[in-house]
Prior knowledge:
The protein is of the alpha/beta class. The chain is built from twelve helices and 15 strands.
Amino acid sequence: xxxxxxxxxxxxxxxxxxxxxxxxxxxxxxxxxxxxxxxxxxxxxxxxxxxxxxxxxxxxxxxxxxxxxxxxxxxxxxxxxxxxxxxxxxxxxxxxxxxxxxxxxxxxxxxxxxxxxxxxxxxxxxxxxxxxxxxxxxxxxxxxxxxxxxxxxxxxxxxxxxxxxxxxxxxxxxxxxxxxxxxxxxxxxxxxxxxxxxxxxxxxxxxxxxxxxxxxxxxxxxxxxxxxxxxxxxxxxxxxxxxxxxxxxxxxxxxxxxxxxxxxxxxxxxxxxxxxxxxxxxxxxxxxxxxxxxxxxxxxxxxxxxxxxxxxxxxxxxxxxxxxxxxxxxxxxxxxxxxxxxxxxxxxxxxxxxxxxxxxxxxxxxxxxxxxxxxxxxxxxxxxxxxxx
Length: 389
């Protein structure tokens, strides 16, 4: 396939960051992300200032792709398009006011915990450039739920339902909180953040908080969901699951989502499986992936994420909204995930490697496929199984 023509933003990104992203070594991956987020956070706070607003308008003009056929209303939220920013990049919500300018129809901030926490020791984020992948063991490093409230308030966001991009808030368990007390820990975060959230995500699938994945067990998850649902003005609740679940566990979560009236399921988080890369050596540590802790993301996760999506859709039926994430780095992969059953998709690792013009390229690709297959709307393609043409 020929290299796509890049717009100015994409060309600028590849010129300045392409050489860095082409190597495992060099600028530390976490430091690069922190530097970018600092700049984006300042831009979000000052987005109405004349010079900054002009730049952001220019970015939006290049990266936004509008097609009414891509709009959807799901769990009470109006999505201008199906492409979102996955949780994990904007952990504290510092750039919540400007993600729409990068073409996203929604953005998920967090993961946020009730207690502020530093996360795991560094280094904890590694590029795997040749494989277009990453290994992370961040450990829910964030400033805490109450600090996120203040951060979002400072950005003077429009109220939920009136934003150019839907805002989801991803919630995790504080490391110091026991599994027994986990429902109250999540509830404390959601209680203060609910007024800010278009929807909220129960993250029980990160591999980097000890014991967290035990909360994917049906009885534990049901207890957690029921606790959160008792909160006043609880926003739509989704659950994010791991790619490492077996079919029986996936089916159980799909049934629970239906029985508890969850708004949707996000599939998938990062993987503890090394996906055939066990002997890949991290140059920063000299150890193989089999020896390193953390979750794998990016292109190697694509096949398993697709399998989980198909299983979820088959078990849950057509009515439960599903969000696909994991290894989505091209219009073709995005279309594949949607036709497997995802109503929405999210980007993270692929967006970092490919650059900001990945979003409009995906959206343009989806519009093109609707034309080619004669679909009147994106929802007609969801779960259809039709191939890319």
